[in-house]
């Protein structure tokens, strides 16, 4: 099936689509680069019968289904069309979520974090299950979790009010845990490194002395803030909310690490107007400063025009008052 994007951004299909649950809809550029949100699975919250594994895109899952005797499954794709994980339902067993592409160092990092942080401090995360023996290829490269009922949201503004508060509360608990001897084998924080590099680059390219100074002052300030134990990838796609109980579960702890206080909060509340977002945070000076600087940077890397927006001005007013 092919679609054409016209000059006025209209999308037209060359035939009528008859879709059934489990089908995949992939919208790509003419170079076959998937567009944001693609591929999408039709009826993405439904469990598929094991027979649906016949689709070529699910080839990887077929072995796993037969090895675990699963009767149903739900595949999860990344934006680049790569298969990220699969939920499995097998008779007389709790549903599980198998996450792919986890090398040994990565698995050791996640297991250590569960053992020393998530379990002892009862953070709201899905239970990490032992990897069952005898799964051939998959035993080496997967992490198994208990499947948690819930849905994710595409923006923090869409999350139920109580869920937002619960996430901020859980983050407060996480940041107060001493890191002790806990160290990652994979120490890289790719997004944080990217954000810092981009800001320096943007400052220099702007050729605007005032803007360069502002961004450098922020950089100095954030370097003095406490580095705390953080989730490291807390966008709303990593927050599951149970539709009936409203219970919140934070998933995808793969990028846990030490990050500036306020980093997680800024990533999570991204898109909510600054003053409204600030109101969710406890009244802690360092947390609010870190939150504001990271929020500003997240806005700035989206485009050069950000600094002229009302949001940016409101953040700058706050920083001028509180940076001291
Ligand atoms: N324990 C779980 N229970 C239910 N669904 C989950 C669970 N873990 C992950 N998922 C689903 O799988 C998707 C991908 O998992 P995630 O750990 O976020 O991988 P990625 O690193 O690709 O973002 C999530 O967006 C979520 O929909
Ligand atoms: Mg994720």
Under CATH, the topology of the largest domain can be stated as Aminoglycoside 3'-phosphotransferase, Chain: A, domain 2
Report the total helices.
10
Which ranges are low-confidence, i.e. pLDDT below 50, for 5 or more consecutive residues? none
Number of strands: 14
Bound ligand species: adenosine-5'-diphosphate, magnesium ion
- How much of the sequence is in beta strands? 15-25%
The biggest sheet amounts to: 6 strands, antiparallel
Highest-level CATH class of the largest domain = Alpha Beta
Radius of gyration: 22 Å
Architecture (CATH level 2) name of the largest domain: Alpha-Beta Complex
SS-based class? alpha+beta
The residue-averaged pLDDT reads 89
Order of helices and strands: EEEEEHEEEHEHEHHHEEEEHHHH
Distance between the termini: 59 Å
- What is the domain tally? 2
Helix content: 25-40%
Query: What does the overall shape look like?
Result: globular
How do the strands line up in the largest sheet? Answer: 5-6-7-8-10-9
GO molecular function: transferase activity
Domain Aminoglycoside phosphotransferase: 123-278
Keywords: Transferase
Pfam families: APH
């Amino acid at each position: 099936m092919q679609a054409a994007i016209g000059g006025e951004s209209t999308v037209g299909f060359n035939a009528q689509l008859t879709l059934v649950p489990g089908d995949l809809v992939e919208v790509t550029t003419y170079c076959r680069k998937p567009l944001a949100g693609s591929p999408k699975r039709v009826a993405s919250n439904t469990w598929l019968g094991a027979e649906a594994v016949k689709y070529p895109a699910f080839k990887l899952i077929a072995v796993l289904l037969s090895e675990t005797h699963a009767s149903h499954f739900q595949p999860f794709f990344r934006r680049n069309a790569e298969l990220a994980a699969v939920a499995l339902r097998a008779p007389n067993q709790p549903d599980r979520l198998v996450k792919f592409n986890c090398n040994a160092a990565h698995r050791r990092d996640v297991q250590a974090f569960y053992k020393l942080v998530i379990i002892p401090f009862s953070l709201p995360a899905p239970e990490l299950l032992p990897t069952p023996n005898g799964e051939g290829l998959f035993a080496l490269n997967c992490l198994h979790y208990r499947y948690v009922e819930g849905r994710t949201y595409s923006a923090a503004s869409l999350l139920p009010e109580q869920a937002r508060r619960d996430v901020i509360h859980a983050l407060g608990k996480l940041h107060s845990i001493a890191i002790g001897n806990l160290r990652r084998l994979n120490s890289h924080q790719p997004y944080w490194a990217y954000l810092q590099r981009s800001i320096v680059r943007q400052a220099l390219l702007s050729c605007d002395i005032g803007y360069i100074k502002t961004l450098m002052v922020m950089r100095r300030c954030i370097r003095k803030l406490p580095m705390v134990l953080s989730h490291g990838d807390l966008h709303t796609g990593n927050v599951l909310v149970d539709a009936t109980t409203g219970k919140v579960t934070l998933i995808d702890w793969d990028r846990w690490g030490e990050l500036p206080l306020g980093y997680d909060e800024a990533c999570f509340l991204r898109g909510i107007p600054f003053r409204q977002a600030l109101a969710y945070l406890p009244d802690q000076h360092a947390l609010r400063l870190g939150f504001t600087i990271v929020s500003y940077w997240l806005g700035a890397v989206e485009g050069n025009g950000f600094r002229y927006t009302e949001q940016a001005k409101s953040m700058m007013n706050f920083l001028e008052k509180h940076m001291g």
